[in-house]
Amino acid sequence: MRVLAASVALLLASALPLIAAEPKGSAAKEDRPLLLVHYMPWYAADPAQKKWGWHWTMNKFQPGHPQNGQLDIASHYHPSIGVYDSGDQHVLEYHAGLMRLSGIDGIIVDWYGRTDYLDYGLLHRNTSAMIEQVQRAGLKFSICYEDQTITKLQDAGRLKPEQRVSHAREEIAWLQQNWFRSPAYVQLDQRPLLLSFGYDGLKDAEWEQLLGGLAEPVLYLSEHHRRPSAAGAFDWPLPKQGLQGLKDFETASEKWPTAMPVAFPRFHDVYAEAGLHPSWGRIDDDQGKTFVKTLSQAIQSHPPAVQIATWNDWGEGTMIEPSTEFGMRDLIAVQRARKKSIEPGFPCAPEDLQLPGRLLKLRRADLTPERQIQLDQAAAFIAARDATAAKEILNRLEKGL
């Protein structure tokens, strides 16, 4: 046992310094935009949660019963790794590794607060777990606050009308104490970046009251339209408007202090098929051209950050996470855009994107603790974008299966 412990300690010592390290000679332009991807922490899967969560089923689909050789999930598309749970550390490591090797700088997490109501508590725990993986992989993170939760809590009798702003202020204060101070948290104009989604939560006057009462200032962006208290807004796919919506946002944002454009691959929701309500509309994938065009357009507008929508909203079909339908195509497009417009010396190649999936497969193989530590070292090499070193470890371990 002492020999094993010493080996483990040695491997950890050699792996940890690699985490978040940048390869030499790969420095990007100082004024480059950050590439941030919107991340959903809301997937619950059997057996981890002993049930299939709503975002996989939408009360109609049955993930445990494949149809015509495909997973029966609430999506027109299917994850390459199968149905997963958003609390699975190995899956989160896989996601973060893919982001790192594709050239994504960080995530914007859809956050529902900390209240133990509906699945909000589970989403908060999943968000915390993903943030740990993001930091380990050398990525950045930021929060998009789903303030619609305030209205739902009020409707459920959990909040009184006069408590709406104070509740939100407590949530933001928690963020300030716990996440905003992280070196990995996205800062724009020397302030932590905070987004809010939609307009079903706090009203404009309530946001003004909230932000005016914070102990430390934030850089707040609202969705599509700039609220009076916001520094600007972030864009989002509008299926009824298609690509014209991007032009409208660009025109409207010219006079704002800050704006965050959006890039997306498509919009193809499953809501009609799920029997929830009519589809919001569709933006065609156009054989990958939609993503290439929107990403290029967003980068060329020279914003402080670009938001890619999304990493994994399978229900609306906007995901760039690898799927059985598109493979790694959209992540390869991110690599190419980064090399072309942001960082010519970006060191990763399309074949490197296979490494996180190989790592995940080995994690799931239930290897010995000593071999799992070697996988920790491979994960550290992926974080350092050292594909050659990561590949050597994975090759060696795969031979032993």
UniProtKB/TrEMBL annotation:
<keyword id="KW-0472">Membrane</keyword>
<keyword id="KW-0812">Transmembrane</keyword>
<dbReference type="Pfam" id="PF16317">
    <property type="entry name" value="Glyco_hydro_99"/>
</dbReference>
<keyword id="KW-1133">Transmembrane helix</keyword>
<keyword id="KW-0732">Signal</keyword>
<feature type="signal peptide">
    <location>
        <begin position="1"/>
        <end position="20"/>
    </location>
</feature>
<keyword id="KW-0333">Golgi apparatus</keyword>
<keyword id="KW-0735">Signal-anchor</keyword>
<protein>
    <submittedName>
        <fullName>Glycosyl hydrolase family 99</fullName>
    </submittedName>
</protein>
<dbReference type="InterPro" id="IPR026071">
    <property type="entry name" value="Glyco_Hydrolase_99"/>
</dbReference>
<dbReference type="GO" id="GO:0004559">
    <property type="term" value="F:alpha-mannosidase activity"/>
</dbReference>
<keyword id="KW-0378">Hydrolase</keyword>
